[in-house]
Amino acid sequence: MLLEIRGQHFPGRSWHIDGEPCDNVHVGVQLGREPSDLVPGDSPGTVWTVEIDVVQGDEGIDFRGPAVQGRRHDRFVYLTWGNLNTDGSFTMFRRAKLMLADLNPLVHPTHSEQRIIATVDLTDERGGPRCARLRQPALILAAG
Questions:
Q1: pLDDT band at residue 17 under the 50/70/90 scheme
Q2: Distances (CA, A) of 22 to 19, 78, 122, 127, 130
Q3: Domain for residue 50, yes or no?
Q4: pTM score, two decimals?
Q5: Helix (H) or strand (E) segment spanning residue 96
Q6: What is the DSSP code string of 4-22?
Q7: Which InterPro entries is this protein grouped with (predicted)?
Q8: Is 139 helix (H, G, I), strand (E, B) or coil?
Q9: Rounded to whole angstroms, what are the CA distances from 76 to 14, 44, 126?
């Protein structure tokens, strides 16, 4: 299955953490422990495409792949926020969870070619980078 995450409404490139400025805020998908496909926080929009294996088991479907985090029945994909430092290192300060169980009504385990589209509003109600569990109305899911 392909999970297409469409990021929109970015919060901007500057952010303060505990009073300290971050002036090069980026967001990307987390693969294992590392950020991937970083995009500047002032982008007009982006699309991340994540391959996810859907496995049918005795207890229902399960999800696997490099971007899949968490334990069985509690799998998710992280969007990770951080400051991209001048030396190229990434200092993570916030993450948003896209819970894969939320995809279950759209997933067909026997259709490996399917695409699910998750449209995410990346700015929270206070104008900052969205974090915690993604829910409607900030998350809209559709079969592609």
A1: confident
A2: 10, 20, 17, 15, 16
A3: yes
A4: 0.94
A5: strand 90-99
A6: EEEEES---S-EEETTEEE
A7: DUF5990
A8: strand
A9: 27, 25, 24
Q: Using one digit for the tens of pLDDT, what is the confidence trace for 85-98? A: 999 999 999 999 99
Q: Is residue 144 part of a domain?
A: no
The pair of three-digit structure tokens given for residue 67, joined into one six-digit string:
């971007």
Sheet holding 45-51, edge to edge: 45-51, 2-8, 115-121, 139-143
Angle at 12 between CA 101 and CA 129, to 5 degrees: 30
The set of residues, in sequence order, having a beta carbon less than 8 Å from that of 94 and lying 6+ positions away, is 80, 81, 82, 129, 131
* Structure letter (DSSP) for residue 106: G
Measured CA to CA, the distance from residue 68 to residue 21 in angstroms comes to 31
Q: Is residue 103 in a domain?
A: yes
Q: Is residue 27 part of a domain?
A: yes
